[in-house]
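Justification of computing resources. Each target in the renewal requires a structure prediction run like the one illustrated here; the chain below, 267 residues long, is used simply to show the kind of job we budget for.
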Amino acid sequence: MFTVLAAALGLAYLLPLVWVILTAFKTNNAVLKNPNSIFFRPTLETFQAVIGDGFGAILTSLQITVGVTVLVLVIGVPAAYALSRHADPVWNRVATIGLALLLILQMVPQPMTVIPLFSVLANWHVIGTLSGLILADLALLLPYAIIVLRPFVLAIPNVLYEAARIDGASSVQTFFRLTIPMLTNGIFTVGAIIFITAWGEFVYAINFLPEGTVLPVSGLLAQQNSQYSANWNSLMALAVLTALPLLVVFLFTQRRLINGLSLGAVK
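Resulting structure tokens:
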């Protein structure tokens, strides 16, 4: 029964991907004539036509995504540690209230935050720049990263901290020499999730970048659809090209990502 269900779910996920890849190798006429046909003459014409735009969008997305991922981890890991390891009861209550506020912030629809963030970024003179977009994505993803990292910190046994304290390690030494190495799975898990999420972010990208800027992949994909028509083969070819960096990230982090998600599911 479980095998049949797994096979059905696999087909449900696999068939749309196969349709995307097949459409990317069709000409525009072939798509308009019979979009669902699996028998056609494959061509690379569409990839040759979109590779220039796709490469520029991938470079823009890489700058944004790497910047957001690094900043989220640099701020999120110490924040999760501070919210998890303090023994003071008053601080624990403050941490609980802070985590509840972070959860509430995650429920706010993203489009509702565009106007307030636009005002803040304009006051900081970073509106219309990649730095401004990275800060906006940081504000969006940092609470989620802290919430996900906290169970990984709590999973580190207290006896290890007590042993470090007996050996004379300071708080900073304990954080860098004990906590960081023990959080490797959590850091890889959160880093991979943040990278994938920032790669596909769309709302802030189209609102905080000025006209004429090379859009990231999410904006470029949206441009393939107009009010009256859609370039399906170009859209699918760009989707295949722009998904390749995500595939590389997944292949490198697959084992740690699965282990990290398994730990997060039971904590």
